[in-house]
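Exercise: predict the fold of this chain.
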Amino acid sequence: MHSFVRNPAVLPGVDVISIRSDRSFPRHSHDEFGIGYLVSGGQESWSGRGLVEAGAGDIITVNPGEMHDGIGRAGKPRHWRMLFLAPEALPRYAERRADDLVFENPVMRTPAQRGLVEGAIAAIAEARPDATDIEERVMLAVRDVFDGGDGEPFDTATDYSSGVRRVLERMHDAFSEPLSLSDYAETSGLSRFQILRRFTKEVGATPHAYLTQYRVKQAKQWMSGGMPVAEAAVSSGFSDQSHLTRAFQRQIGVTPGRFLAARAG
C-alpha cells in the first residue's frame, strides 16, 4: 500500500490523503466530511446509503459518522485521493453550517465537479501550498459537490457582470496589495462564494489565478524595462523573488533569469 497524508497547516480543518492499495478495509467511519475521486481502478463498498460501486474518474463522498467499508480487488490496486473537512470548517468553505449539509450521493459521475475536486487536492499537495489558491479551490469544490453537481459549467462569459467588473478594476488598480475573497466580496456586494463562483464562470479562472497571472505580466513588463527581478517581484505583489520565480515559470515556462537572458541574447 502506498499513501500520503498532507495537512498544509495554512488552511484549518482541511486534510488530504492519497492511497493506492488492493487491500480491503473493514467497516469504519470518519469524523469529517470526505470528498474525493478514484484516480484509477475500482472498488465496491457498503455504506449507510447502500451498496456503492465506483470506478476511475468517479467522485466519492462520505458524511461524518457514516459507517462504510472498502472492498479491494486482489492484484488490482485502486488509487484514490480524498479531501477531508472538519465539520467546524464548513461555515468557512461552504458558507453553511455542518448541520445543514449532507452528501446525498456516495458516488457522482460529473466531470466538471471532478475537475474542481482534483484542482483542490492538487493545490493542497503542492510542495509550497498557497493558502489563497487552496481556499478558493476548496470552496468551489465543496459547494458544487454538496449541491449535487448541478452548478452551471464554467463557460467564459462574453460580458462581465457589474460585480465582476468592479473586482477586476480593483485587481488592476491594487494588484500589489494582499487581496482576498473577503475584499472581493466587499467590492462586489456579494458573498465570498457568490463572487468566487461568478468570477470563475465569467472570467474562466479563479480570482487568485487571475490576479497571479496579472502580477506576472506586470513583473515581466518591469523586468523587460530593466527593473531587477527582486524589485519587480515585490512591486508586483509577490512576497519575494522565489515566489515570483515559481509563478513566472508556471505561467511562462521559464524562470525570469532565463527569460531575461533570452531577451538579451
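Check your answer against the key: The two ends are 50 Å apart (CA to CA).
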